[in-house]
Write the structure tokens for this entry.
Amino acid sequence: MDNDCTGAVTYARRMVARIGPKNRNKMRVFLLEWRNYLNLTQEQVADRIGTTKGTVQRMEVNTREPNLGYLAAFAEAIDREVSDLFRDPKAPTQNELLKGLEPAQLREVEDFASYVRQRTGTKG
């Protein structure tokens, strides 16, 4: 290979490393927003969960990614469902969004949900 081609390959490898799948499947969790929305301190949440203020802080700033057990404990500590943690507390809930739909629109949503369940092999 000549030098121009080698440089291009090296550049391409660096770009793949930079834009690769590193954060592709990362989901946004709104822990800090929920805590602030409910006017709770990190200490209060930590006491309710049975952990330290430092752990709460690391989870909020994504220094440490929360596992399902932590999310369940956090949700219970703030009297919410785990699924609520994946939306901004100021955003409408699923029920609030569906509430104003006409029957035909609701059927479309149900049909789409059924299609997604079939395609992904999930139940519900």
Remarks:
- The chain has two domains: 26-90, 92-124.
